[in-house]
Design a protein that fits this description.
The complex is a heterodimer of chains A (788) and B (401).
Chain A (H helix, E strand, L loop, with lengths): L7 H6 L24 H5 L6 H9 L3 H11 L3 H7 L3 H5 L11 H14 L15 E5 L3 H12 L3 E6 L7 H4 L8 H13 L3 E4 L6 H9 L4 E4 L5 E2 L12 E3 H9 L9 E5 L3 H12 L4 E5 L11 H9 L3 E3 L2 E9 L2 E15 L5 E5 L5 E4 L2 E4 L3 E2 L34 E3 L2 H4 L4 H19 L38 H4 L12 H9 L22 E3 L9 E3 L14 E6 L5 E6 L5 E2 L9 H5 L5 E5 L5 E5 L9 H5 L5 E2 L5 H9 L7 E6 L7 H5 L8 E6 L8 H9 L2 E7 L11 H18 L7 E4 L6 H18 L13
Parallel strand pairs in A: 1-2, 1-4, 2-3, 4-16, 6-14, 7-8, 7-14, 8-9, 25-26, 25-27, 27-28
Antiparallel strand pairs in A: 5-15, 10-11, 11-12, 11-13, 17-18, 19-20, 21-24, 22-23
Helix pairs in contact in A: 3-4, 3-18, 4-7, 5-7, 7-18, 8-16, 12-13, 23-24
Chain B lengths: L6 H11 L10 H5 L1 H4 L6 H9 L3 H6 L11 H5 L6 H14 L11 H8 L25 E4 L3 H7 L8 H13 L15 H5 L3 H18 L3 E4 L2 H13 L7 E4 H10 L12 E4 L3 H5 L4 H7 L30 H16 L4 E4 L2 H11 L11 E4 H8 L5 H10 L1
Parallel strand pairs in B: 1-2, 2-3, 4-5, 5-6
Bound molecules: flavin-adenine dinucleotide (FAD) and iron/sulfur cluster (4 copies).
Amino acid sequence: MNSRDPTIHQLISDTQATLRLDDTPTATFRVGPVEASPCTWACPAGVNVKTYVSLIAAGRFSEALEVVRRNNPLPAICGRICTHPCEEACNRTQIDDPVAICALKRFLTDYEMAHPPDRPQPAPRTKKESVAVVGSGPGGLTAAHDLIRMGYGVTIFEALPMAGGMLAAGVPNFRLSRDVLELEIDMIRALGVEIQTGVRITGDRATVGLFEEGYQAIFFAVGAHKARKLGYPGEDAAGIVDCIAFLRDVNLGNPQKPGDKTVVIGGGHSALDSAQTALRLGAKEVTIIYRRSRKEMPATPSDVRGAESEGIQIHFLVAPKQLRVKDGRITGVECIRTKLGATDESGRRRPHPVEGSEFIVKADTIITAIGEEPDLSFLPANHGLDISQRWNTFIVDEAILATSRPGIFAGGDVVTGPKSVVDAIAAGHVAARSIDRYLHRKPLARELLWKPPTEVEIKVDLESRPRIPRVPMPVTAVAERINNFKEVDLGFSAEEAMAEAHRCMRCGPCRECTVCVPECDKQIALLSAANGEGALLLRFLPGLEAGRLPLVPHSVSVTGRSGVEISAQVHPLVSHVNERRCRGCGDCVSVCEYDAVRLEERDGGISVAHVDVDRCKGCGTCAAYCPSGAMEPGYFTEEWLTGLLAGMSPERTNLVVITCSWGGARLYDFIGRKQHKNMDITYLQTLCAGRVEPALVLRSFEMGAAGVLINSCGVSDCHYRFGAAQLTRNYAKIEQLVTMVGIHPARLRYEQIPSVDAARFDRILQTFARQIRKLGTGQRAPLETVSG
Amino acid sequence: MTLPATIHAELQEAVASSNALACLSCGKCTSVCPLATTGRQYSPRINVTRTIRQDYDTLLSDADLWSCLTCQKCDAYCPAGVSYLNLMAVLRSKARQNGFTGECSHAGALQSLARLMVNPDLKQNRLDWLPEQLKTSSKGDILYYVGCTPYFDALFTNLNLHTTQAAVSSIALLNELGIVPALMADERCCGHDLYWNGDVDNFRRLAEANCAAIENTGAKLVLFSCAECLSAFKNLYKEHGLGVSADLQHISEYLAGKVDSGDLILTGDDVMATYHDPCRLGRHLGIYEAPRKLLKPNGNNQLPEMSQNKGRALCCGVSAWMNCDTVSKSIQIERLKQARATGAEVLAIACPKCQIHLLCAQHDQGIGAQNAIEIRDIATIVLGRIAGNSVVVEQIESMAV
Ligand SMILES: Cc1cc2nc3c(=O)[nH]c(=O)nc-3n(C[C@H](O)[C@H](O)[C@H](O)COP(=O)(O)OP(=O)(O)OC[C@H]3O[C@@H](n4cnc5c(N)ncnc54)[C@H](O)[C@@H]3O)c2cc1C
Ligand code: SF4
Ligand code: SF4
Ligand code: SF4
Ligand code: SF4
């Protein structure tokens, strides 16, 4: 092989090689399945997990954190206490253990704290309306964060003396340090959100007063802070306390010292937190009683193990039956053993008491942690809002979070009942989006909201994957932690984080191609769309993230881990709107089936299109439909295609072959880009067939093609699901125009030959070429005069 | 791109022919320019000044060189007699020769089609839309020049467009008057758009081919439904020393003449229409009254007029399929607002391109609905006004739906 013609493989394996613009790698990478990775689908807030894990693996921490922050304004908090449904969904679970996604997120924020950036600038106020957010938990904070960045005025009202909701009042310091909480809330304050603490919104103020005070919309994110009662006689005796009150007192700085023997009733996070808090406050013996088995515990298993390692006893399959009270003080609890029966509506098996198995557990203090519900006593009697009788929660349309009163929205625990931080964050996003639409009198369209499909099948070759143990979270030794409230988890070092991130298999495509080479020693993710033009399609190179550099082709240099410099041309595969050109017609919005484009309103009711780079697949279908040329597809630009056409020699008979990059271009893996004697073949490639429009075909003829052969995947095999269907629709139009302008219909052909059938494609190409030879040269427009 | 040293000499002539040196720098042009008044940082005055200063680098590389609508509003108001239009034509042609170009709408499909029609051996299939009931021939005294509407209808399927309806109606009306017009199976694009794209070479080739073809039919009168085609033939061809021996008229002029002579009687139902003057028919050719005569309601009712009409009419926002964007749309929305404000039911147009551009703004998902008003070609309206008088007309009408 020629040294001027290294393959990508060579470049990757040769640590001395420097990839420069004039290098022409010829190898192409296989392209895999289409759907997003399971971790990303699983995240309620839609955080692009795989992307940031990949960036961590590449040592590009601040970019990774930016990716997280796009969907999650509270990464340091989530990095500590998120219930991480992403890890539950992680494909690695089928090999060994899930990637420690949550801990990786925490690492990013630890890293940032060690290298603090500037405090964010206040978001510019561009809209006249203001929004009142009631409650400063994760739901309220997220909505406020989103709304202020959209340009609204936002005030958060918080009943408690400190902001943070349950994170401040419930979650203890040893799991989430107050410094971290404060820092993250401060980031949101810095954007310009005003947080009024110690202000409980009550009575008419909640339903009409706030509107009169100049707020045009209200978001209730008041959480679920009312502890459920056992309902047994003696519950008001001294020495019995509910976990919410107990933890809140501790967090507010006036802890109630528990007795030597403390019993906690319950099995969730609040039970564990109460038990561990009691231990730290000096209780000698702490016991948890839980009426189901370990498997059913709502608390995360690792947290349960953490508590047990501190010496906390958990009695499973035990339920309280009666409280023991003497002289107005609690002395213990009579318990009964249970066994599990049929599955109930929560999906867990229901416990049944075993008659005659009663026994007594002595206790000086009992902490009940059997569930919470919202406290809606702040609402006026005539509130007129739909409230669930059973759960005492707001009834809202879950996809848009609108209550039964116009302008009032609700989300988070107050709608779902006690759930999780990340669900509250997701609700905050939805609420902000709905409020924005409401204030602009747009329909609160459900279909616009991010809804992951129920099930995704991602093909990953699990057998071939080596087992790699999960990097354990470093923790403070038990003896050093049980007498104080310092954070127990210590977080990963950069090396640990990168090692853990390398375990990620990058399931599913990154923007599309699974050609992302995890083993790449140059620490770049290589994406090649088999363009055959020698250009690499690179993703996630420095400065390429959305919003910082325009997503246009440019060249970059990076220094790999081994110190080797790599320069390459970057062709982002996402579509880009030239705002100056955009008419705001919305054709792109209606044609994009990935919901990646939306219209953003500008002054005077005029809109411009905006591409969400996280959703855009770069297929370019939108560009095919854009009337004004505002939509530029990544890489497969009009300029590039026209440039290739301009290379056709006027002296020769020219054939133009247009293929998509999947079914089409992979044919060349088998048959190559054949030439034909007495004829030049110019190969044009688009990422997806959807991008092929009348102008491309007409221009091919105009610039000298004697024939145009188009090939794409079949309608049902289209890599983008709808591109081939769009072309099929568009092709009728292309054919009509070509015929009308007097080009012989036999000069145009459209096939849907899959790459496996390369031989057939080859035959058709040969037949077509022969046919064109018979028809003679095309009708290139006479050349224009050029100056100079 | 560095411009060749000869550029100054090459452009001297333009400066002279556009009369730029007479500019008083009064700014009247900018104050009426639809681009400038709709928010584009665009000033014909500054461009004239740049021309005088020979700042050709800036002029030729400016992306907005291609934004001018060549609507000629500026010229109409210029007290010093500067022809900005003329200046634009020269600058664009020079710019194009030096590798600059505008942003073509619809990915350049229309420019490609026009250039494909330059082919000397062209054999198009462009008359498929022609209904059997209509009588046409290939030779004759009166030639009807269809324009590119068959291509438009095929390309803009999303707008549910029927610009060929103008041709159908015009031919039906001619048949009604006892005339069998000639149609050219190989009529070419008039070249208007290529001319304003700066591609003067191909414009010329199209013009030559068209002129030769028309002479071939022996026509004494050529009728047009498209204002741009007519202005190309009357003004641009002439400027290039080309032309045909036949008379050239817009269909509305011809029909208005027939109304005057009593050959065409508009007795059918009135349509409350307001009329949009295409820049080419109005300011470029001074035709204002003929279309109005055809629309004027029976009895004493006045034709509702838009706030900007005749010489002051607002352009439809795009010219030569180039540089279409938000400003274009704002102009279109403004024009539609003006039309709605008259209370008319129909916006009558005399140019298929105006029709497409205004329809496109209405098709907008966000604000289109607020600007709804039926847009109809003038010949189609006239056909409706003689409905009931003729069998031909009835057949055509039933076919139109
Ligand atoms: C002990 C404990 C541990 C937990 N651990 C975890 C965990 O590890 N991981 C996890 O994901 N989730 C955990 N959760 C759940 C999580 O904290 C909640 O799901 C989440 O905080 C809900 O957010 P929110 O915004 O809906 O409401 P909250 O965070 O509850 O915030 C609501 C806020 O509204 C305020 N408020 C109420 N009424 C008014 C009013 N009328 N006027 C003004 N302000 C008002 C409240 O004071 C409160 O600050 C835990 C919960 C508890 C109790
Ligand atoms: S292996 Fe990586 S991409 Fe796959 S599910 Fe786990 S974290 Fe996501
Ligand atoms: S390129 Fe494809 S995925 Fe991206 S915005 Fe356009 S249509 Fe949607
Ligand atoms: S299709 Fe083009 S002009 Fe229309 S909104 Fe999209 S980008 Fe803008
Ligand atoms: S021709 Fe029309 S658009 Fe062009 S500068 Fe003059 S007024 Fe403005």
